[in-house]
Amino acid sequence: MATIATTLRRPDLLAAETTAENEIADSYRLRGLPGDNLYLFSKRIDNSRLVREANPKTRGDCWNTIATACVLAAMVGTAVSPRVASVLTGYQTEKLKSENRELNEQRRAREIAEARLLTPSRLDQLANARSLAAPAAGREQHLQPHESGMAMIIPPRTGAN
After folding, report:
1. Number of domains the chain contains
2. What is the pLDDT of residues 68-87, one digit of tens each?
3. Distance from CA of residue 103 to its chain's centroid?
Protein backbone atom coordinates (compact mmCIF):
# COMPACT_ATOMS: atom_id res chain seq x y z
CA MET A 1 0.00 0.00 0.00
CA ALA A 2 1.36 3.25 -1.05
CA THR A 3 1.17 6.32 1.02
CA ILE A 4 1.32 9.86 -0.14
CA ALA A 5 4.86 10.25 1.29
CA THR A 6 6.20 7.38 -0.78
CA THR A 7 4.34 8.57 -3.77
CA LEU A 8 5.86 12.01 -3.67
CA ARG A 9 9.34 10.63 -3.31
CA ARG A 10 9.30 8.77 -6.51
CA PRO A 11 11.68 10.30 -9.03
CA ASP A 12 9.35 10.02 -11.98
CA LEU A 13 6.70 12.13 -10.26
CA LEU A 14 9.28 14.71 -9.19
CA ALA A 15 10.62 14.96 -12.71
CA ALA A 16 7.17 15.61 -14.07
CA GLU A 17 6.58 18.54 -11.79
CA THR A 18 9.65 20.50 -12.92
CA THR A 19 8.86 23.51 -14.98
CA ALA A 20 10.76 25.32 -17.65
CA GLU A 21 11.98 27.88 -15.15
CA ASN A 22 13.48 25.16 -12.99
CA GLU A 23 15.24 23.75 -16.06
CA ILE A 24 16.82 27.14 -16.83
CA ALA A 25 17.87 27.61 -13.21
CA ASP A 26 19.33 24.09 -13.13
CA SER A 27 21.46 24.76 -16.22
CA TYR A 28 23.45 27.39 -14.32
CA ARG A 29 23.78 25.33 -11.21
CA LEU A 30 27.22 23.94 -10.42
CA ARG A 31 27.69 20.27 -9.91
CA GLY A 32 28.32 19.01 -6.38
CA LEU A 33 31.72 18.57 -4.83
CA PRO A 34 33.06 15.08 -4.15
CA GLY A 35 32.10 13.99 -0.66
CA ASP A 36 29.53 16.82 -0.41
CA ASN A 37 26.87 14.44 0.76
CA LEU A 38 28.98 13.16 3.68
CA TYR A 39 28.50 14.48 7.20
CA LEU A 40 31.38 13.94 9.58
CA PHE A 41 30.68 14.23 13.27
CA SER A 42 33.68 15.09 15.42
CA LYS A 43 33.49 14.36 19.07
CA ARG A 44 35.75 16.21 21.50
CA ILE A 45 38.11 13.73 23.11
CA ASP A 46 39.37 14.54 26.62
CA ASN A 47 42.59 12.69 27.44
CA SER A 48 43.43 14.71 30.52
CA ARG A 49 42.63 11.84 32.87
CA LEU A 50 44.75 9.35 30.98
CA VAL A 51 48.16 8.40 32.35
CA ARG A 52 50.82 7.12 30.04
CA GLU A 53 52.08 3.68 30.91
CA ALA A 54 55.76 3.67 31.83
CA ASN A 55 58.07 2.02 29.36
CA PRO A 56 60.94 0.28 31.20
CA LYS A 57 63.25 0.55 28.19
CA THR A 58 63.14 4.36 28.05
CA ARG A 59 64.72 4.72 31.50
CA GLY A 60 67.78 2.72 30.41
CA ASP A 61 67.95 4.64 27.14
CA CYS A 62 67.90 7.92 29.05
CA TRP A 63 70.77 6.86 31.31
CA ASN A 64 72.74 5.59 28.32
CA THR A 65 72.30 8.97 26.62
CA ILE A 66 73.43 10.82 29.75
CA ALA A 67 76.51 8.58 30.11
CA THR A 68 77.40 9.04 26.44
CA ALA A 69 77.09 12.82 26.74
CA CYS A 70 79.34 12.81 29.84
CA VAL A 71 81.99 10.69 28.12
CA LEU A 72 81.83 12.91 25.04
CA ALA A 73 82.17 16.05 27.19
CA ALA A 74 85.17 14.54 29.00
CA MET A 75 86.83 13.67 25.68
CA VAL A 76 86.24 17.16 24.27
CA GLY A 77 87.52 18.71 27.51
CA THR A 78 90.64 16.56 27.39
CA ALA A 79 91.25 17.46 23.77
CA VAL A 80 90.72 21.20 24.30
CA SER A 81 92.54 21.63 27.62
CA PRO A 82 96.12 21.85 26.19
CA ARG A 83 95.05 24.63 23.83
CA VAL A 84 93.31 26.52 26.64
CA ALA A 85 96.36 26.07 28.87
CA SER A 86 98.67 27.41 26.15
CA VAL A 87 96.46 30.44 25.60
CA LEU A 88 96.39 31.16 29.34
CA THR A 89 100.18 30.70 29.52
CA GLY A 90 100.55 33.15 26.63
CA TYR A 91 98.48 35.72 28.49
CA GLN A 92 100.57 35.23 31.62
CA THR A 93 103.82 35.48 29.60
CA GLU A 94 102.73 38.75 28.01
CA LYS A 95 101.70 40.09 31.42
CA LEU A 96 105.12 39.19 32.85
CA LYS A 97 106.90 40.75 29.86
CA SER A 98 105.01 44.02 30.29
CA GLU A 99 105.74 43.95 34.05
CA ASN A 100 109.43 43.33 33.27
CA ARG A 101 109.51 46.30 30.89
CA GLU A 102 107.86 48.48 33.52
CA LEU A 103 110.33 47.39 36.22
CA ASN A 104 113.29 47.99 33.88
CA GLU A 105 112.00 51.51 33.17
CA GLN A 106 111.66 52.15 36.91
CA ARG A 107 115.20 50.81 37.51
CA ARG A 108 116.61 53.08 34.77
CA ALA A 109 114.78 56.07 36.22
CA ARG A 110 116.20 55.32 39.67
CA GLU A 111 119.72 54.88 38.28
CA ILE A 112 119.45 58.23 36.50
CA ALA A 113 118.17 59.88 39.69
CA GLU A 114 121.03 58.30 41.68
CA ALA A 115 123.56 59.42 39.10
CA ARG A 116 122.22 62.99 39.30
CA LEU A 117 122.47 62.94 43.10
CA LEU A 118 126.02 61.55 43.13
CA THR A 119 127.63 63.92 40.63
CA PRO A 120 130.72 65.70 41.99
CA SER A 121 129.17 69.13 41.44
CA ARG A 122 126.06 68.12 43.43
CA LEU A 123 128.21 66.69 46.24
CA ASP A 124 130.22 69.93 46.33
CA GLN A 125 127.00 71.95 46.57
CA LEU A 126 125.78 69.78 49.46
CA ALA A 127 129.15 70.07 51.23
CA ASN A 128 129.15 73.86 50.88
CA ALA A 129 125.54 74.06 52.11
CA ARG A 130 126.48 72.10 55.25
CA SER A 131 129.84 73.82 55.72
CA LEU A 132 131.86 70.70 55.07
CA ALA A 133 135.40 70.74 53.69
CA ALA A 134 137.52 68.15 51.93
CA PRO A 135 139.88 66.25 54.26
CA ALA A 136 143.43 67.42 54.58
CA ALA A 137 146.21 65.55 52.82
CA GLY A 138 147.39 63.55 55.83
CA ARG A 139 143.99 62.79 57.33
CA GLU A 140 142.76 60.49 54.59
CA GLN A 141 143.41 56.80 55.23
CA HIS A 142 142.42 53.90 53.00
CA LEU A 143 141.58 50.65 54.78
CA GLN A 144 142.42 47.17 53.65
CA PRO A 145 139.47 44.79 53.77
CA HIS A 146 139.56 42.25 56.62
CA GLU A 147 137.97 38.87 56.73
CA SER A 148 135.66 39.95 59.50
CA GLY A 149 133.99 42.46 57.18
CA MET A 150 133.75 45.12 59.91
CA ALA A 151 134.70 48.75 59.33
CA MET A 152 137.62 50.17 61.26
CA ILE A 153 137.65 53.69 62.63
CA ILE A 154 141.13 55.19 63.15
CA PRO A 155 141.32 58.39 65.16
CA PRO A 156 143.21 61.27 63.54
CA ARG A 157 146.97 61.54 64.39
CA THR A 158 147.89 64.38 66.56
CA GLY A 159 151.60 64.29 65.82
CA ALA A 160 153.64 65.63 62.92
CA ASN A 161 153.69 63.62 59.81
Report:
1. 1
2. 999 999 999 999 999 999 99
3. 33
